[in-house]
Amino acid sequence: MNNKSKFNIIAGLAMIFLFVTSCDTEKEDVPEKGDEIQKVEIPSSDATNPIVAGQMIVIHGEDFTENSEIWIQPSTVTKAEGKEMKAEIISVSENGISFITPKVSGQCDILLRQGGKSQTLGSVYMEEKDLESLSEYMYIIGGQKKIHYHYTNTTSLIILFRK
Q: From which domain of life does this come (predicted)?
């Protein structure tokens, strides 16, 4: 091998090395280590005990911020078509977030977006229920306000009013 061949091989290997190291293999949405919400606690649910669309959910964890957003996305497990839906945030603290679930059914992933990053917090089973089926548990007196409700199988109901 002459010097010119050795030089060409070294130059070629250097170009391959530069190409491989310059490629960005990290996804933007993947939280960096230390940015993720830790100790996440999500209410359990399944087809026999679903979370009802419109229900208020509280998720406990560490390091939520005021700019936290919750999105509900049908899971690939259910092969449901549709896009993720933003949940209405009720309150946020460093140790938890509460929100009203949007109208969606089936197995769904709960996504947290905060600080320009996204994290899947877990999965829940959701079901849309018609308000008519909840009427025996609901007692509303007067006024025309937007109503959010919370319904559980123990027949308890929390009604949140917004102007």
A: Bacteria
